[in-house]
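Reopening this ticket.

The earlier resolution said the output was attached, but the attachment link was broken on my side. Pasting everything inline this time so it's all in one place.
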Amino acid sequence: MQAATAAASAGGRQADAATGGNAENFAAIMQRHGIPGAQLVHVREGREQAFEYGVMRADGTRPVQADTLFQAASLSKVVGAYITLRLVDRGVIELDRPLFEYWPSPRAKDNPQARRITARMVLDHTTGLKNWEISPSNPAIDGTPLQSLFDAGARYSYSGEGFYLLQRTLEHLTGKRWEQLAREEVFDVFGMPGSRYMTDPESAVRNASGHRQDGSVMADRVFGWENTAWTLVTTAREYSSFLQRALYRGEGLSPASHALLKTPSSNADDQAVPVPVDPYIDWSLGVGLETVDGRTRLWHWGDNPGFKAFFLLDPESGESLVLLTNSENGLDAYKDVLRLFLGEGEYPAVDWARAQS
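Inline output:
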């Protein structure tokens, strides 16, 4: 069995023998699902347990360490939602004013519905836009017209295009590239020095490689420009810091904006992908909400080729879990990992994410 290491922090991080069982069981889950490398951070009652497992790439020997960088995929969107709410609090943008009034995107100019899209519609996925018009890694995306599947604001349909449109609008309003905004508003504030939206040649040596279902290594991807919908690379420890301070404690947000992250805004019933667990899932402004037996938890999943990511956060107790994996098999391990650390349960968010992936 490939080794997993564990550390716990209470003030400062120190080895904790009590985590040994979880480390062994976590490693067993990763091995059972054919996942070459992973990071996990679990926080309960303010106490953090961090685990690193396996190797950065299956055809090498470099172990996953605490500072190994993983693609967080759509966990990127939650950082984007937080930044948006920060700018709402400052009066830079309003949630219900059309983005086109702030910046007339050439992609929206010929689409009356796209010109009606607001920041709120982006954050709760009711823009009516496709997930992507073309591959978001294609430079032609900035010149590709946006097409609407239905009227803006009418209903839920998950869309990365909406977040990218919002990003470009905020860049116009602030005069800053997204990487700079993210560093100023999030990374430098919450102790996330390794996190970034663009590939940095100096830190690329720390990037884990993605893997197909059969364990073969995928070509490393270079993010030549930022996209708040999917290009974040980070570590589980850094992302956990963001969850605890930004989403749980609401640092940097007004009480009203913090509440919006925890309040249903759309029902997340995607007519194109109906699933039995739909009644348990809603969407706030940027975050998924899972409600089971009257208990609501915040969550999001990430789904990039070769990388799968997931987090769950209890907004009342602050208990949270972040899992980053460098494998297409990552999603198959979510429930096993959640039950190991958070307890037995059905976790409908995982079933919903599987249907969308």
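Reporter confirms the inline version is readable. DSSP finds ten helices and eleven strands in the chain. The CA atoms of residues 199 and 222 lie 6 Å apart.
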